Every structure is written in C-alpha cells, then in structure tokens.
Amino acid sequence: MGTEPKLKINWPALPSTVRVEAEKIATDLLNKTQDSELILESILSLGRSREKELADPVGDGAVYTPYPVAEKLVNHINLQAGQSVCDPAMGAGVFLIAAAEKRFHLGQSVESIAKQTAGADIDTVSVEVAKLSMQLWSWLRGTTVVSFDGLVCVDPLI
Fold first, then answer.
1. Total count of domains within the chain
2. What is the C-alpha separation between 133 and 127, in angstroms, rounded?
3. Is residue 19 part of a domain?
4. Are 97 and 48 within 8 A, CB to CB?
5. How far is residue 28's CA from residue 38's CA, in Å, rounded to a whole number?
6. In a domain, 9, yes or no
7. 5 domain residue, yes or no
8. What sign results for the dihedral spanned by CA atoms 138, 67, 29, 38?
9. 37 near 29, Cβ under 8 Å?
10. Distant-in-sequence, close-in-space partners of 14: CB < 8 Å, separation ≥ 6
C-alpha cells in the first residue's frame, strides 16, 4: 500500500457528488484496486459530474468535451514532450488531461508536465475540479507530490 498524497484541493468548493467520486478514486489509487485505464476513466468522469450539477450547462457556457474528442485534437496538433499547454477555457480540464497523457507517454515527467500546464476558467468550481482531476492524474502516473498552480480562476477574455 502506498502513502496518500496531500492534495491541494479546496474540498468544500466541490459538489458533493464530485467529492464522493474523488474519494473513491483516491481509495482505488491508494489500494491499487483498479486498472489504470479504469481509474483514468473515473478521473475524467469528474468533469461530467460537475456539468450535471449545473442548472443550465449550455446557457452557462459549460459544454463537456468527451475525452476521445480532446485526445484526437491533441494528437492532431502533434503535441511533443516538453511543450507547454494552455487551455484558456479549461472547464474541468479534459483537454489538459489529454495533453498530459500524450506528453507522459512521450517520456515527459509528471513534474515537468505540471510546470508546463496552464489553464483558466471563469467558474471557480470547475477550476477546483480541474485541479483535482490533474492531481489525481499525477498520482495515477506515479507522482504524489505535485501541484498544478497554473490552473486559475480568471476571465481570460479580459
């Protein structure tokens, strides 16, 4: 059994459904009870859970992008290890996870990926979900002490 990391998350800001799902993911990671691909799917589901919490997601400008679409776009731009990534409307971070996965599988370290990942969103809860998702992703990929300080709540259009 591993050591549980200290995630830098504003837990009270998260919807209860997201907190419950995140706790299950953390337990699976800690106990190594699930296949890594299943855990990745669970991490990605946090964004869908966030979207379901919104009364009018489309009216609020929150449109969940399916992971296969984000993955295909990341592959289309020929992202390389060592390149920085910024998503100015990151929502729950699905594009950032797709880009992180690509760079990780190209041999880039999780620590380096964290330093070269930036994202912004105007919704504070979505930003917290994105931070949570990225930190759980880093734990999945073997690094328990990393933060994604480049994920911020701002209006990038101002």
1. 1
2. 10
3. yes
4. no
5. 10
6. no
7. no
8. negative
9. no
10. 22, 125, 128, 129, 132
Task: Tell me how far apart the alpha carbons of residues 137 and 30 are, in angstroms, rounded to a whole number.
Answer: 13
Q: Which two tokens stand for residue 88?
A: 């100015």
The parent domain of residue 69 ranges over 14-153
Whole-angstrom distance, CA of residue 21 vs CA of residue 110: 23
Task: Report the chain's mean pLDDT, rounded to a whole number.
Answer: 89
Q: In angstroms, how far is CA 153 from the centroid of its own chain?
A: 14
Q: What is the pTM of this model?
A: 0.90
Residue 141 lies in a domain: yes
Residues 23-50: tens digit of each pLDDT:
999 999 999 888 999 999 999 999 888 8
| pLDDT (tens digit per residue) in 62-106 | 677 889 999 999 999 989 999 999 999 999 999 999 999 999 999
